[in-house]
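Aggregate trends can hide what the representation actually does to any particular protein. This step matters because it turns folding into a mapping between discrete strings. For completeness, the protein is quoted in full, as a sequence line and a line of structure tokens:
=====
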Amino acid sequence: MVDGERARQAIRQLDPAGAGQPDIDALRATAAAGRVLEVDLRTTNGLWQADARLHGETAPPRRLAGPSSATPTAALQGWLAQPAVRDALGWAGAVPRLPDTPEAVAHELGSGLLLRQQGKLAEALAAFERAAAIDGQPRAWLAVAETAGAVGEIDTALDALDNAQRGADALPGPERQRLVAERALLEGDGELAVAQWTALREATPDDTYAQLQQGRAQGAAGDFAAAVSTLEALSQRDPNDPRAWFELGKFTLLSGDAQRAVDDHLVRALVLYKRSRNTYGEAETVNALGIGYGRLGQTADAIEQYRKAVELRSMVGNRRGVATSLRNLGNVLALTGRFDKAAAHLEQARTLYTALGDREGLAAVDNEIGLLSEERGDYPSALEAYQRALRGWQAAGDAHGSAQAFNNIGFAHYQLGAYNDAQVYWQQAAEAYAALGSETGSVRTAQNLGLLAMARGDWQQARQRLEDSLAQAERQQMPEEAAVSRRNLADLELMQGNVAAALAQLEPAEALFRQRQDQRGMADVALLRVQALLAAHADDQARAALDGLQPQLESAASEQRAIAGMLESDLLAREGRTREAAAVLRQASQLAIASGVRHLQLQIALREARLGARRNADAGLDGATTALGHAGLRLAWLEWQMEQALAREDASAARAAYREATGLLRAGDYQRAWQLHRLGALAHAQGGEAAAAQRASARADTAHAEAVKALPPGMREGFLLDTRATGPMPPEPTP
């Protein structure tokens, strides 16, 4: 059974201009139908008659004529009642009673149907509403509900379904089930919608519309695997139905396979929608292609598709669709650093969603506002926006949106220094994404949990998570996620002193970010490269790289500008320009405070303490670094504490700091391990512990050799000149 919309698509696919009568055999093949029923309703001398021909695959057409009647409704009713008709169609059930439709209602319904076929959805909705207001037939209200849902008028659609249900007793049983299913899908009750459409499909196995709706309902319920399976079967059964390819592309995309969704499904849907002159379907597919191109890192293509989607959705009167495309466009523009344009588009989307009363849409806008705040480097504002998004998605019962909000809230907490809260939200996100079968969500939560393990000093677990996330991202052709995994792995390599490995990870990460025009990602990579060069004591190269980054930093996020300032101060301090370094740090500190990134604030504060530009440093930073729980930062603090204790000849304090440092170093290699062990050797020697001093000195030599080995060959000589021991170990103390 081919529904009316699919039949019209098939006719248009054969005759896009609507200029002639399509070939019946070609029509049957295009619609994947075994037989075609062609009905003519004509009037002669004031009497109406239905005269039909049933076309099979091989036999000549069979004529099925009905009696003459005074009205077209009676003519169709009489034709359906003919035993020959019922036998030919295999119709074993009761003959449906066609409603007596007043002429004014028929006119409005007919006008609405024609307008809907032409893609003029807003005008079609008005015609259906006029028809329903005159007579109140359930079918008229169903037409209102379907069209209102398509243009995003959710409240209007729900009201129409309420009105349809009041007269549902007049409908056949399957239509009453369909009414329940349509309402469940509109209200977000995917499980009920699946149950209803599954029952309808089981009752009529060859009903392709029921199969299409079953797939849509399974996807709405979050069971993407089942939705893809159902829709793949439908696309194999009817390969020319653009709706099946579109829905298949949508749920494949949500499952995380963007490449397949774009290349195999959405492009095919777009061709078929264009061929059938379906502007509404074309608009939906173009927007989905924007999402797919965005996932694949083709940012310019994504922007173009979203702009086309705004135009096409405006043409058909789909206000909700326009809002969604504006929201998507805002997201991509934020990614490319065009923050003001992004904010303007998001505000337009919010206005439309508010007018429509769309809770899910408003939640999605809040999520995008959070992402925009992140791009600008304002994590307190990002957290507030994500929390609003979570409340909205949970109220709307959107499991996928809620999972996304959990993940984003976790990242905001991480940046703000609340590591325990971050872990709770990321674990919730991981569980939610696993239940949804989302590959993209799985990769992103693995990346974030890897970041957390890195911060806490569990470097082995961090490496495992990040390498797994990279492999999964590359296997699923997710360039954005692959770039982030490589950038995070570079950070880990640098923390562990593997400078050459860090630089090797940064090169492909930069290429992927550049491909997506991801300004934040490119700046992140560039700043990490400067840090790696500083760690290698390649100061001239670091200076050149940092200077070359300045134009890009003008529109960068506040924490990126703060990091750049911190690195500038490091270079100035190495040049002996302490006062200038302190002045640069003061500016960087203000930017870090504005961003809310706690780890960065404390990094800068520690540098200020080293330069003597921060009063009462010991009292504040000791407790702050302990409370944050960032292993790398704590080790940097302990290194400075050991230097300070040795300078005032407080061997006991120096040894205590070294003991804490060695506990953290047991987790694996660390960039500054050689210096910590050297200071530990001095602390033990100053305290009269010769054997312990020698052991620490041996560890220092080993760690230093490993650090040299982990450098690019061209940087090893300069590192050795700057970091080799300047003299013998202190003499053993006299007994």
User: Anything to note?
Assistant: Residues 726-735 have pLDDT under 50 and may be disordered.
